[in-house]
Amino acid sequence: MDKFPQNIIEQYLKTSVRLKKFERIVFKRFAPNVSEVLSEFSSLAKKFEDAGIYQYAAMCHLGVAKCENSNANTVNECHAYLRAARSFRLAMNTSENLSFRTSQNQYNEGAIRCYTQAVQRCPDDVLRCAIIREMKPAFEGTSSFSSPGHRIFELELSAHECLQKNDFMEALQQLEEITDDIYERKKQLLYEDLLKRVEILRLLLIIALRLPPARQSPSHIKLTEYYYQLGNFELFEEESNNCNNSIQGASLSLDIKYALGEIVVLSFEDKRSELKLALQQFMSDFSSLNAAHCFVINSICNKIN
After folding, report:
1. In this predicted structure, what is the pLDDT of residue 241?
2. What's the Cα-to-Cα distance from 210 to each of 55, 60, 85, 303, rounded to whole Å?
3. What residues does each domain of the chain span?
4. At what angle do helices 34-51 and 4-24 cross, to 10 degrees?
5. pTM of the model
6. Cβ–Cβ < 8 Å for 182, 191
């Protein structure tokens, strides 16, 4: 019985070696079976949790996340990171309650990293908001929670909350702050998926707000001008890629860009009936649109008689 924790720790180490072999081997048919490794990590995580060794349970959940990533199962990967974050928090709480001398910062930092990974890998807007709400109270006072990455996710959450209140102007300002922050720090590759959904949402909000020229910021003008030129075939994708100063159209596929271009042209020309049809078609054609995109599109369509 005395060897119980040591035995499962040895099992964990052996399973970790198998995972590293899988990641290292180029031809996966010669690698360990990733489903077996995933199952072993899941089983070990339960054993560590039952034994109250939460830091090792967290490491096992991280192993599960890596396996799910190899299987391209984004939903399960996200949930694995979330379980890892919760296990790190339990390890931190246990350490505090028992007054261990071990630094609790490592558990704190581990939890924050796992929450961040869960948010980044989360395919669902509602769950993403729930994760951010879960992580915020626990780490609000730490310097790590004030990191640029967490601030960006807070801004996106705040923008979605503004949409629920129909405060489109405030939502647009939050999204522009996200874009400015990412480009100023030159972290476009790190936030590629975020930039895609933010750009679409920014453009839709500008169309929904129908701001007079005096209230349009330079970023509004540049964004709408870019898509207006695409929609009128005054600008081709090859030319836009050669514009070093341009941050519009970042990472979006050509079909989405030209569809947005058409929508902007119809909005500028005030062809409301055609705009409504184009927006409905846009929503139908692109399954990658999230709930926020659809909410703004429906809002625009409902205002068109």
Report:
1. 47
2. 52, 51, 43, 12
3. 4-134, 152-303
4. 150
5. 0.57
6. yes
Using CA atoms, how far apart are residues 173 and 60, in angstroms rounded to an integer? 40
Average pLDDT rounded to a whole number, residues 68-81: 91
Domain 4-134, CATH: 1.25.40
User: DSSP for the chain?
Assistant: -TTHHHHHHHHHHHHHHHHHHHHH-SSGGGS--HHHHHHHHHHHHHHHHHHT-HHHHHHHHHHHHHHHHHTT-HHHHHHHHHHHHHHHHHHHHHHHHTT-SS-SHHHHHHHHHHHHHHHHH---HHHHHHHHHHHHHHHTTSTGGGSHHHHHHHHHHHHHHHHHTT-HHHHHHHHHHHHHHHHHTT-TTTTHHHHHHHHHHHHHHHHHHT--GGG--HHHHHHHHHHHHHHTTSS-HHHHHT-TT--TTTT--HHHHHHHHHHHHHHHTT-HHHHHHHHHHHHHH-TT--HHHHHHHHHHHHH--
Mean pLDDT of 236-242: 48
Look up tokens 């296990």; give the residue. Answer: 87
Of the candidates 223, 219, 213, which has an alpha carbon nearest to the alpha carbon of residue 263? 223
Q: What is the pLDDT of residues 14-70, one digit of tens each?
A: 888 878 776 665 445 555 688 888 999 999 999 999 988 888 899 999 999 999 988
For residue 152, what are the CA distances in angstroms to 116, 179, 195?
11, 9, 11
**pLDDT over 80 at 198, yes or no:** yes
Task: Answer yes or no: are the C-beta atoms of 31 and 21 closer than 8 Å.
Answer: yes
Please check the confidence at residue 259 and state whether its pLDDT lies above 50. Answer: yes
Per-residue pLDDT of 132-146, as tens digits, reads 888 775 555 454 445
> Do 20 and 68 meet the contact criterion of CB atoms below 8 Å apart?
no
